[in-house]
């Protein structure tokens, strides 16, 4: 998945969630950074890093990796400051087998909360949610942010797994990844706005058990 944090007029509709993008459509460097991201096998569905930095490279084994392009230009011609960027999460797709019950999800990995207007960036201190195995939804998502030394909490009642949804000013993307269907990981991309800081966005990986 990708989450560009830019003013909406310049983002070129490059938010995408791709549960089935083939590994052959992705390019990963020796550092672990991904410099080509894809939503399918089609070349037109790929977004590349023309030049710039990939920062906050984090991973959980071979299950999932996240990072952020910043101080960069992508192959769509978008440019990003140090507090903007393209956030990504790339993982091994995982099919859930259970058809009932719930799992409690907590934050495992997260990148910087970026600002679409190039203002102050922030941090994602904690994230919680409940994974409903029967409904295949992520419920009661709660993101606790700090942007420009001000605390904010974003909440989302219910988001479909392996898809996108939007309620009010908050958009959520999610993809189930990992290797153990009894303890899945959920990569979540979020984009919204907070008072006095404008549009924000980032990615977080939840561990569910």
Molecular structure report:
With 209 residues, the protein is an all-beta fold. The chain has two domains: 2-91, no CATH class; 102-208. It has no helices and 16 strands. It has strands at 2-5, 27-28, 34-38, 46-60, 64-74, 79-80, 85-91, 102-110, 114-115, 122-132, 137-147, 150-160, 163-167, 170-177, 185-194, 198-208. Strands 8, 9, 10, 11, 12, 13, 14, 15 and 16 form a nine-stranded antiparallel beta sheet that branches. A hairpin with a 7-residue loop joins strand 3 (34-38) and strand 4 (46-60). The radius of gyration is 16 Å and the shape is globular. The model has no long low-confidence stretch (mean pLDDT 94).
Using brief descriptors, characterize the structure shown.
mainly beta, 2 domains, nine-stranded antiparallel β-sheet, 16 strands, 59% strand
């Amino acid at each position: 998945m990708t989450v560009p944090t830019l003013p909406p007029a310049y983002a070129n509709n490059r938010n995408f969630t791709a549960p089935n993008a083939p590994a052959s459509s992705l390019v990963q460097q020796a550092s672990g950074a991904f410099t080509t991201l894809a939503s399918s096998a089609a070349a037109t569905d790929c977004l590349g890093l023309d030049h710039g930095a990939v920062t906050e490279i984090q991973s959980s084994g071979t299950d999932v990796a996240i990072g952020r392009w910043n101080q960069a230009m992508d192959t769509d011609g978008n440019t990003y400051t140090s507090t903007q960027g393209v956030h990504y999460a790339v993982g091994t797709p995982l099919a859930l087998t259970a058809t009932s019950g719930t799992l409690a999800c907590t934050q495992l990995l997260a990148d910087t909360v970026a600002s679409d207007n190039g203002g102050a960036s922030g941090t994602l201190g904690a994230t919680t949610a409940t994974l409903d195995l029967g409904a295949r939804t992520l419920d009661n998502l709660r993101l606790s942010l700090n942007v420009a030394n001000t605390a904010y909490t974003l909440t989302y009642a219910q988001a479909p797994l392996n898809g996108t949804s939007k309620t009010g000013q908050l958009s959520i993307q999610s993809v189930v990844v990992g290797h153990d269907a009894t303890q899945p990981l959920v990569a979540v991309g979020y984009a919204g706005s907070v008072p006095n800081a404008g549009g924000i966005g980032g990615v977080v990986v939840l561990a569910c058990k």
